[in-house]
Design goal:
heterodimer, A: alpha+beta, twelve-stranded mixed beta sheet, 14 helices, B: alpha/beta, Rossmann fold, six-stranded mixed beta sheet, 12 strands, 28% strand
Amino acid sequence: MIFMTLRIAVRALGRNKVRSVLTMLGVIIGVAAVIVTVAIGQGATHSVQKQIQSMGSNQLIIMPGSTSSGAMQMGVGAAQTLSPNDEKAIIRECPSADMAAVIIRTRAQIVYGAINWAPATVQGCDPDYLGVREWPVTEGDCFTDKDVKLAAQVCLIGTTVVKQVFPNENPVGKRFRVKGLPFKVVGVLDKKGSNAWGQDQDDVLLMPWTTVKKKLQGNTFNTVDQIMVTARSAGLMNQLEDELHACLRAQHKCPRNLKGEVEEDFQIRNLQEIMNSQAAITKLMTLLLSGVAAVSLLVGGIGIMNIMLVSVTERTREIGLRMAVGARGIDILSQFLVEAVTLSGLGGLIGTLSGSGMALLVAKLAHWPAFISPQAIGIAMGFSAAVGVFFGFYPAWRASQLDPIEALRYE
Amino acid sequence: MAEPPALIDLQGVRKVYRMGEHDVPALRGVSLAIHPGEFVAIMGSSGSGKSTLMNILGGLDRPTAGVYKLDGIDVADLSRDELARIRGMKIGFVFQSFNLLARTSALENVEMPLLYGHRISSRERRERAHECLKRVGLADRWHHHPSQLSGGQQQRVAIARALVNRPRLLLADEPTGNLDSKVTAEIMALMQRLNDEGLTIALVTHEPDVALHSKRKVVVRDGLVVEDSQVENRVLAANLHVDDTGKAIA
């Protein structure tokens, strides 16, 4: 019976093709808009999440404080306020801290036979760094704590470096020179892609921080550029930040200024917070655009109601005839309701297809990540069918309440 | 010989319409019985109440007072939906203006009543529609749309549609009102043939010529039946031939 009603509805709509298509247009545009905005919004959220993940999760970065005051008073070397002892103190005294790693940045060039390559990032660190960044070694092994202690001339390289320096060889076990010193490649890092700022994270050379200090820089100061710390869980991030402040204030014996405030010689950055606010903005934009799309879907629904009312009036005699030959009120009601739902449902389907197409096109042309979620498609389709039921009901109800005698006499 | 039970049994049927503050009586006490196999012409000028009578006979309207039994069923207590079901099962309607669905094939037009209340397969629906088109002589036109058919052919399709539910009563409201005399004769011949096959027909008309094709004439005036008689000199349309001016002569 439902199938029959559907067939009658499709037949009736087919008799007025142009009108049916124009009526559907409102819903098509509405649904397409929903699909496109949600796809683009979710794509953005998705890529932000991916970037957060590529940084490593639950991460705080400790950097030296503004160099100005310290530098002016105490000389250049003193700007380096962080030391490996801070790392040990953090692990010892901060219960919320899971792992910590020290980092020293430098610039250096790899020389391997005739090949020269200066990686974007050359860092000294300790083996925990890979844990903090959630960065596995795919070939070979990481250097060890013993290598750090001995300032061994060993290193890890990223996939971009492999491509540039060892295009046709297995790099593990090979030696190249950095600043004239021979380094042995002990492992290759997993591919990570670009970070939130578009920088290639795989163009990287990692070695023990002591090696950078003593061998490359010839520096005797026992200071590092950054300390990265991870919390035991995402919920402990704020607590960890407080613990770090307390721990480092004690370590550095930070003085109070005249107002009684502690003058810290370090900064703690929560990158995840920055990322989260970025994600929140994207979410807000998506919500706003979805609102606009919902309004256009509403307008489409009103268009359907309008046309259905016209159609009921036009087909008054047909309604009278159907009633005369035995159609009950409910038969007429369901016929017109199914027509309205067919209009909006078909509009929803076309809108979904064209919206998905547009989202993919935008993704391709604007290099914007689009993520077409089945959820959004489901919601859009369901919503458009609901629009048909909601706005189709009144015209259909009016049709079902017609008096067959009056309807048959209608000119 | 015992009379067979009446198919239509009206007793003291009154119908009053409310127009604003006034009550306008359309039927003022009509008693009428129609037995199976009859061919009744209901005549009357406009305003006589014959349309109201026809609506009540067809189950489209209910009497204000009095009893109407259709095939033994008292329609007074029936709901809107029950009335619709009775119409769908027992009555076939033919209208002056054909009332075919535009841009829909003759076959689908004929099938249409079977969509409501008849629980039969689409295949059987199709077969029955074909059979009815054959009975009205349009078997080869089943796929034509109304706009591709002449007036007479359209009315035949409408008659086929009225037959498809195998009705107890065929109710025709001025079926030849929009047709010229030649086609009128064809339609009346068809109706007479259907009557001969056992179909009970009630025909509403204001044309005496058309009424002459029936077996019994009921004249309504001012809401009352003023004449109820057998038709003498009945015209058998099948024997008519039509002269060059289009006027039918016996």
